[in-house]
């Protein structure tokens, strides 16, 4: 099949297996270029391991620390007429690279919210890996079926308390627009917290602890975002913000609990980046294209693997207790929120018109980063070549699912 990008809304409905492999290799090369992580983790479980920060976490653990890794994600395989999802191709490529290094790796493709997937992971860890010393929680999903009640919850992207209006951008035609979002109902807030909050993270730690699969000194980390004032109305003060509040409270609960085995639970507040999930949030892509241009001008820009590599080396495994803010969060958004960066972002935001947009924002960079998520636009890839889109995860070939 000759695979080209097909954009629908804020997602690309095709993915290129060779391009995804090149993107994975690019991230591996970055980690290897910074050398081994001294005293890094050796047995790692990554929940939400196929794209974005979760994928980068698995790459840094494997190639920076030579850790055994188990990754959990929910991705679609190719079906003959359609390509697999980018996350699936990412995971195939990463497993191939890890296995070539002689390291253990295993993937579970299923609903991380379900008890069935949790039990499957427990069985894999008991059989092959043993207690883990790092659990990364990077699950982002639009819906969740509660494993105990069966209730289906769907996350929404809305402000809380009152409607919100601001500038946004239609990235398909680079058109500046004004968008108004109505206030969320209490039910919508509750459902968003159920999907994107910390309950599932809590359930994962519960089942790992019950089965003796948390190593002494274990670290668990979840990823969050706060952002600047210009995004507060729809993000931090919105439904997603309520979910992040719950996630952060969960970290405090887990941290207190894990102290009995010398463990810790942490929140890493990361910077704004182009991801499949962030592309869906109104106003955020417009903020990002302005931010990206400013950070590139100042030599401060970081992508996902650069962020996570810094997280591991400078915070989680630096040999010292990780530096945190007054709330106890690791702040990888420190460069994004620098006063000099935000001053320029705010100035340019106020100057935005359709005529000034291309000069004030990094539209080309955003489009390039977005397509790269799906394996397109990577140097060295022949996008006119016929490629085999039917790939299988190597660990599932070698070891059937339990």
Please give the structural blueprint.
Elements: E1 7-8, E2 11-12, H1 17-33, E3 43-47, H2 52-65, E4 68-73, H3 86-100, E5 105-109, H4 115-129, E6 132-137, E7 143-145, E8 152-154, E9 164-170, E10 175-181, H5 186-196, H6 199-210, E11 214-224, H7 239-258, E12 264-269, H8 284-297, H9 304-316, E13 330-331, H10 339-351, H11 357-360, H12 363-372, H13 394-398
Parallel strand pairs: 3-4, 3-6, 4-5, 6-11, 11-12, 12-13
Antiparallel strand pairs: 1-2, 7-8, 9-10
Helix pairs in contact: 1-2, 1-3, 2-3, 2-9, 5-7, 6-7, 8-10
Explain what you see.
This protein has 402 residues and is of the alpha/beta class. It has one domain (7-141, 155-390): 3-Layer(aba) Sandwich (Rossmann fold). Helix content is 41%, strand content 16%. It is built from 13 helices and 13 strands. The strands form four sheets. Strands 5-4-3-6-11-12-13 form a seven-stranded parallel beta sheet, sandwiched between helices. Strands 1-2 form a two-stranded antiparallel sheet. Helix 1 crosses helix 3, helix 6 runs parallel beside helix 7 and helix 8 crosses helix 10. The longest helix is centred in the middle third of the chain and has 20 residues, at 239-258. The mean pLDDT is 94.
